[in-house]
Structure formats: structure tokens, C-alpha cells
Amino acid sequence: MIENTLIDWSRMQFALTACYHWIFVPLTLGLSVIMATMETLYVVKGDEFWKNTAKFWMKLFAINFAVGIATGIILEFQFGTNWSNYSWFVGDIFGAPLAIEGILAFFMEATFFAVMFFGWQKVSKRTHLLATWMTGIGASLSAVWILIANAWMQHPVGMEFNPDTVRHEMVDFWALVLNPVAVSKFFHSVFSGWMTGAVFVVGISSWYLLKKRDVKFALSSIRVAAVIGIIGTLVVMFTGDMSGIHAAKYQPMKLAAAEGLMDGGTKAPFSIVPGVEVPGMLSILATHDIDGYVPGINNLLDGYTTPDGTTHPSAEEKMKRGKLAINAFKEYRTTADSCKEEKAAALSVLKDNIEYFGYGYIESREQLIPPVQLVYWAFRVMVGVGCFFMLLFVVVLWAEWKKKLEGMKWLQYTALLSIPLVYLGGQAGWIVAEVGRQPWTIEGLLPVNAAVSSVSAASVQTTFWLFVAIFTLFFIIGLRIMVRAIKLKN
User: Fold this and answer.
1) Is residue 157 helix, strand or coil?
2) Of all helices (H) and strands (E), which one includes residue 311?
3) What mean pLDDT is predicted for residues 237-245?
4) Who contacts 379 (Cβ-Cβ below 8 Å, separation ≥6)?
5) Four-CA torsion 242, 244, 250, 256, nearest 10 degrees
6) How many CA atoms lie within 13 A of 456 on its CB side?
7) What number is the average pLDDT over the span 331-339?
8) What are 145-164's pLDDT values in tens digits?
9) Which residue, among 261, 354, 249, has the nearest Cα to 301 in the 3D structure?
């Protein structure tokens, strides 16, 4: 078995690059909608004020977009460098949406970005508006294919294991695309970007109010951003409910960890914080039925039977069947083609146990438990931040409508200081999604210890600290350019 040091460093490196990349992605998604809405107002009303307002936010969008591209390219390379076994095992499936993202969505986004940013004096107003909206649509399409790939790791569908090539191969492309986890994950992630962009615009605009600069610009930007923020937050809340149902159905261990639920059952309580529970609420959230059965961590490890009589095997039974599948696979591969009966028998055992193939690489039941405390508190940060921003958008919009916002410095400071908070909430959401499914790279199919590359831990450590330096430099440079653009606004 591969040493834990290599696995830990490979995971940390991927987490580092993913977290840095996600600093830039949601702002790209959110600002694209906000600046396109402002430019639409310019085209409809013919007011140069909205053109200048859109151009300002477009400048910040471009800075963020450029740095985001650099971090995203490095992120994808790691599938080949640090997770080559993963790439070999499921590359036929996982690579398809990433290839479509690169060939279709990214090039579409980049092409229209060039027209949007450099074409103000070169194309008509309506053509430029189309380019602006298409840049945003391209960003969302890019997110679609990446999130389809990620959702497949959470709930693998549309594939079949080929023992001759030792690969999982796609058999149903549309099952991959229409994966229910992918649908909810797309809307949840993209509209969280709307929320991020709205918080950013409201916060920066509040800084102008505090400085008593560009007041009309600031109030108008806040009005547009707050409306988009409310829409985005409502969709995030609705799709969060969908994600809870999907986690209960496809990733019950993640849900149990997010709730710190050791022993489940019907009328399962929802934990607000340790010691404060709402009876029956988790069953309602997970199954939309107060009598719905929600297994806890101990139930999932020991095995359980639901009220409808469905039996779920214990961790030990899954590990046993996983080892049967691995041994049958080895026997199939080593048996001569001329020994048709022996080969067919091995294949039959493999097919009967293929569902538990990944469990054959698990050494103890404790490995199946994700870091409960981290997932538990990350979930509460995510939900708490989302509720706070819904309240903030409503209060800010009300204050602006009542023409009281200019005099409410406490609200302006709150909005400005909330910018880092929205990033904290976004990172917490990904911690729940990714750490919550450990030890799996692909849920129930391939654990991290079987997916990692056969490289030295020292080489991964070296590149980890190299990426820390590079990404931190990118972040500082991008932030300084953005701050300078904000301060020097005409």
C-alpha cells in the first residue's frame, strides 16, 4: 500500500490549488452577470452613466479573470502528475467533460471576452452587449462541464468496468450529463457565484460611500448587485436543499459527518450546534418526510436495515466483497484465454462484486469516516454565511430604496467587511463537498490510496511549496492591481 505521507501531500497540493482557484471562479461568475445587466441598462436607456459603470466593473472582472485562468490550468495538470492511477482508471469518463470545457466553453468565453474588453469603439452597442452576455454564458458553460466531472466523482453513473483494458468506460454520455448531482451542483455553484459577485460589488460600492466618492455610481451599483444577490442566494438555498437529498441518497456518510450523527433513525434531529437540536428536522431535510430514515456513522459501519426492509451491508462485508472482486479480477487477468471456464468463473465473481471493488483497498472501517469535526463546522459556516448575506442584501436594498443608505455608516462598514466572509463561505462549501466524501476520489469506487501516482513524497512536497509561493504571488499581484483600479476610478 502506498505510504500515507505521499497521499497526504498529494491531497494537500490538490486542496491548495483548488482553494486558490475557487477564489477567482465565483467572482468571475457573479461579476459577469452584474456588468452585463448594467450594460443592458445602458443599451436600453442610452445613458452613458450605465456604460461607464459597466466598464468599471468590467475592468475588475478582467483582472480577476486573468489570474483565475492561471490557477485553473495548474489545477488540471495534477490529474496527470499526482493522480495518474485515477486518470488511467477513469480517464475515458472524467476526461470527456474536461475536454468539452476546454474546446467549447473556454474558447467561447475567451473569444467573446476579447470583443467585450477591447471592442467598445469597434462594434455596435448591441453587438458589444451580446459579447458581454456571451462572456458570462461562456463562464457558466465552463462551470457546467467542470461540475459535471466533479458530480460524477460524487455519484458515478453511465460507465462500465472493462477488465481487459483495466478502465471504466463511458456507456451513457447523457447519464453523465444529466446526473442529478450535477444538476443541483451546477445551480448551487453558479448562483453562489452570483452571491459572491453581489457581495463584492455591494462591499466595494460601500467603500465609495464611506469615502463620499462617486455616490451615484455606488448607490446604483448597490441596487443592481443586491437584486442579483437576492436571486442568487434564493437559488443557492433551494439547490442546497436538493443537495441534502442527494447526499442522503448517494453519500450518506457525508451527510452523517456534516451532522455529526453517530446513530441515526427515523425522526432524526438536525444539529444547529453541539447540544442544540431540532427534533425530526434532519429527516425532513434529507427525505422530505419526518419519518424518513437517516443512517448515522455507526449504522453505516455496522450495516442497517431501513423501515422498508432494504438491507445495507456492514463495512466489513463491503471490504470482504471488494477483496473478492480484486482477487477475481487478478485471476481473470492471469488466466490463459484457453481456460475459458476458469476465466468465465472469475469474470462472474468480478461482476457480482464490482459494486464494492473500491472497498477492497480499504484497510480498516475507520478509514471510511471522513474528518467529522471539519465537515460538521464547515457545513455550519456555509449555511450561516448564506443566511447572513440574504439578510444583508435585503437590508441594503431596503436602505437604498428608502434613501437612507448614505447615512448608515455601520451598514456600509458591514458590507465592506463582508467581502472576505463570502469567500470563507464558498471555501467551506467545497470542504463539505470534497472532504465529506473522503476517503474516496470517486464515491465507493476508488479510494485515494489507490488513485495516487507512484512518485516520491519529496517531489510532491517540493511542488506544494512552489505552488504556495506562485499562487500567493498571483493573489497579491491581482489584489494590488484591483485595489489600485478601485482607488483610481475616475
Assistant:
1) coil
2) strand 311-312
3) 93
4) 258, 259, 428, 432
5) 180
6) 4
7) 85
8) 989 999 999 999 999 999 88
9) 261
Residues 6+ apart with CB under 8 A from 77: none
Burial tier of 306 (Cβ tally within 10 Å: 0-12, 13-18, 19+): middle
pLDDT tens by residue, 71-121: 777 777 788 788 988 888 888 888 888 888 877 777 787 788 889 988 898
Per the CB < 8 A criterion, the answer to whether 262 and 299 are in contact is no
- pTM, two decimals, is 0.92
* Alpha carbon distance, N-terminus to C-terminus of the chain: 61
d(CA 195, CA 211): 24
Q: Are 54 and 38 in contact (CB under 8 A)?
A: yes
**Is the four-CA dihedral 182, 85, 361, 297 of positive or negative sign?**
negative
Residue 1 confidence (pLDDT): 42
Helices (H), 369-453: 372-401, 409-417, 419-435, 448-451
Q: Is 58 left (phi over 0), alpha (psi -120 to 50) or beta?
A: alpha
Distance CA 33, CA 27 (A): 10
Which positions ≥6 away from 106 have C-beta within 8 Å?
Answer: 138, 142
Burial 94-122 (b: 16+ CB within 10 A, else e): bebbbebbeeebbebbeebbebbbeeeee
Using a pLDDT cut of 90, give the percent of the chain over it.
73
Check if the beta carbon of residue 486 is closer than 8 Å to that of residue 207: yes
Rounded CA-CA distance 131/139 in Å is 12
Task: Report how far residue 110's alpha carbon sits from residue 235's, in angstroms, rounded to the nearest whole number.
Answer: 27
Using only C-alpha atoms, the chain has a radius of gyration, in whole angstroms, of 25
Three-state secondary structure call for residue 45: helix
What pLDDT does residue 260 have?
94
Contacts of 315 (CB under 8 A, 6+ apart): 300, 301, 302, 303, 359, 362, 365, 368
